[in-house]
Amino acid sequence: MRLKTNINLKCFLNFTAALILITVGSKNKLKRFKENETFSNVVQPTREKLLQGDFPLKGQWRSAFFKNDNPLVLELGCGKGEYSVGLAQRYPDKNFIGIDIKGARFWRGAKTALEQELPNVGFLRIQIELIEWAFAPNEVDEIWITFPDPQIKYKRTKHRLTNMEFLERYKKVLKPEGVVHLKTDSEFMHGYTLGLLHGLNKEVLYANHNVYKLEGSPPEVTDIQTFYESQYLEHDKAITYIRFKIN
Length: 247
Description:
eight-stranded mixed β-sheet, alpha/beta, single chain, globular
């Protein structure tokens, strides 16, 4: 009877602890959502507004948001925004926009950018499949896709950020000479993307299956690391990179 009581007590305590974590996590998310609304470097249009076709920054990101005419670079699925911020620090003569639907995540990057007074980085909260509604044709110079979910199961193919449908969306907003960067720890994603690009006869400018093992790798690939990337490297996990054109 005592053993059963101890087991029940342990289960109750574990359940209570989990409930507390969920509650705290929810409160933190709500707090970050509210704080995002006050950030000058965060834009959060509704899906309905985008689809109506009257999003005011479409075609005007340089002049209306960044107040300059520098090249425009997107990071898709930016997560906490570490890479967007890192790129902005490294390239002050370019404009960067981190895109993610999860505002509670990129809150960290947006807050860091404001604290460091980085005027050349912003964050856009939209679903990536709506990219052509947020940017005008030929408005974007580069696209970065960093550590996306590889969506390995076949039925998840439509969600891979380098599938044919997504590439067509990127093509609509990229300049003719624009490039796409894919950095991932997934050998599957690396191979899938290379195979698709070759099949579509797209120009692959650079490809490496382990950038940290090759001397002379592009510095923007090896000098900027996300938190999880540094953990991958501690376990000697290969980081792959592809730079390619789709126009």
